[in-house]
Amino acid sequence: MALPILHIGNKNYSSWSMRPWLALKWGGVAFEEHIIPLGGEGYGRSQIKEVRAISPNGRVPALQIGDAVVYESLAICEWAAEQAPLLWPQEALVRAHARSVASEMHAGFGALRRDMSMNIRRRVEPTPKWPGDTRADIEQLHNIWGGLIDRYSGPFLFGRRSIADAMFAPVATRLRTYGVEISPQAQSYCDAIFADLAFQEWECAALAEAWTIEQTEALYR
Ligand SMILES: N[C@@H](CCC(=O)N[C@@H](CS)C(=O)NCC(=O)O)C(=O)O
User: Fold this and answer.
1) C-alpha 117 – ligand 1 centre gap (Å)
2) pLDDT mean over 96-116
3) How confident is the model at residue 1 (pLDDT cuts 50, 70, 90)?
């Protein structure tokens, strides 16, 4: 059978695409990738023609497996974990905890995502002044990361890499891009993500991408 194809957006900008891409890599699941440049006609309305042609929700990532399409980043990560169960912690209650924080990231942190669009290449200076809801998201990140690193001793949230880290990896790049002040413990966690080989492969590709999404670049100019 042909390899699954992961349809993703531009690596510099598409945080949702990075998550299952990392999970598949970490799980050792073979796949091909197909990049669809975002930012043109229909962008922001789930109406990019090339995306709609393969993804039922008009968004990437979408994983094509034969005739089937798995979409929504967390659902793709779950599929990856069916092929590579070590992508979740092995103990049931710890796994439930990891699923909780991964779901919290997937469904939440709206203010942080609104104000800190992923832009791996960019460094914004000076750090913008964040509104209260964004500051609350940053504080909640510290609560989650700090609690888990204290409990499982790092360097990743549940000790070894898991889907929980795949869900938070783009956030680490956002904190760096926007120069957010974070605790030494949170910085160590970000550094563990930045040192990961699969992350570095994605980052190198992001740095080499030629196209730009003007809406994102215009933030804080
Ligand atoms: N909830 C979706 C979000 C996917 C998403 O918003 N993807 C963005 C790229 S990062 C997209 O496809 N945008 C296209 C558009 O806005 O038209 C997931 O978890 O996969």
Assistant:
1) 12
2) 98
3) confident
- Cβ–ligand 1 contact at 59 (below 6 Å): yes
3-state secondary structure 81-92: HHHCHHHCCCCH
Burial of 76 (0-12, 13-18, 19+ CB in 10 A): buried
Please report the pLDDT score of residue 110 as a whole number.
98
CB of 176 closer than 6 angstroms to any ligand 1 atom: no
Q: Is the CB of 43 under 6 A from ligand 1?
A: yes
Please report, for the chain, the start and end positions of each structural domain, with discontinuous segments joined by +. 5-85, 88-204
Q: What is the pLDDT of the chain when averaged over all its residues?
A: 97
Tokens of 67: 């005739």
Whose alpha carbon is nearest atom 13 of ligand 1? 59
Contact 50, 65 (CB under 8 A): no
Domain 5-85 has CATH 3.30.565.10: no
* Fold that domain 88-204 belongs to in CATH: Glutathione S-transferase Yfyf (Class Pi); Chain A, domain 2 (1.20.1050)
pLDDT of 120 higher than 90: yes
Determine if ligand 1 sits within 6 Å of the CB of residue 7.
Answer: no
Q: With a 6 A CB cut-off, is 134 part of the ligand 1 pocket?
A: no
| 7 within 8 A of 60, measured Cβ to Cβ | yes
pLDDT tens-digit map of 49-83: 999 999 999 999 999 999 999 999 999 999 999 99
